[in-house]
Amino acid sequence: MDEDSTEKLLPHARQEGRRGPFPDQKNLLSPPISGREHITSRAYQGPQVPAPGQSQDVPASPPPGSPGKRKKRKASPTRIALTLFGLMLLVGCGALSIGYYYYTNVHSQLTNFIRPVSRGKNEPVLNSTPTYDIIKGKSWNILLLGSDNDGKYTFPAVLTQVMMVVHIDTDNNTVTMVSIPRDSWVNVPEVGGMHKIDQAFLLGVNAGKGFDDGVRLARQTVEQDYGIPIDRYAWVGLSGFAKVIDTLGGVDIDISHPVVDDTYPNDTGSGSDPNDPYAYSRLYLAPGPQHLNGQQALEYVRSRHSDLVGDIGRTQRQQQVLQALKQKLNVASVVENLPQLIHDLTGQVYTDLSEQEMIAFANFGRTLDNHAVQRITLAPGNGDQNFGTYQSVYDPSIGANQDVIVPNCETIQPVLSRIFGLGFMQGCNVTG
Fold first, then answer.
1. Model pTM score
2. Whose CB among 29, 210, 302, 387 lies 3.0–4.6 Å from 22's, allowing a Cys bridge?
3. What 3-state class would DSSP assign to 144?
């Protein structure tokens, strides 16, 4: 069974090269793309400094990892989504710092990110009573959705590779990020049946008329299956990551060891073929200091094959690039590049946070101690941290087995109750 069997659930859509506005179509998916995968070859054009005694010839791929390791073709984009969401908040904060310029040149553009989505009839009614300081006096649950639109789908009919609930306690100055693995096998309300949770947004778009229906169904799925009330949402298109890096002048990375990927997905960037989003290219990253542009940085963090230190190497590379990017994300650089950054993020970020809330959260984040941020992933593990099991289940919608994660509510529920203050309420019920 192909690892991304999620994509077989519904027909693939041809990429039309356009993001937003939101088309009002009953079914936004097109017939499957014909043609076979092909292998192309591409390597970095920037400076490549070999290690002492190392030949500059492209090395052969290291032997595959040990049997039993679960490998997927696509990299987890969670950190990229968080960075882009944080950048949106910083843009608002940086823009406000220049006063009159903000109101005459930025205000109208910043509002393009704001897209309120009405609550469904089966969603809980939230208390929206204003407080003395916009965000103070309560805890907030923000649903972060991240989509890597890699040419296989037409926006907004996309999967959400990132589904995370960011719990912000403004009284105790703490943040907890709860990641829900995209392969979690859960009940999707309204449309019914068991599905991977990354399909909820796509199913909502198809069943309704567009983006709002996707947000609404993804939000309702998290609320009903995990018992977490959602106050706000933010959707992030991950292709904006490369644009932002280019605008900020690239990033300097010291590559510690060669990275060779013979099956890197050649589905984004100038070298990709829009008529064949399933193509591969050969990626070689030489060790040593390199200055990476946006596309190169995206390739560096996405590749997960043949890293000499295994999958942990991909995580380290992601942290390395994001740390380099964070050094450039200060108020001065945001103000200097403000018009272009807004252009980069247009069509890549949507939220129902108000302008005042964005600015308040940006200020809250700037004063937050790193130790006050906790992260948890509801994935398989050990003991009371075993939040699910890997299983292969039959999916009647595609007529084949799916490799999924079956959530373990027995261990998930105590954690959610503690983080979200649910008390003894039994909120985790992923089977519907």
1. 0.71
2. 210
3. strand
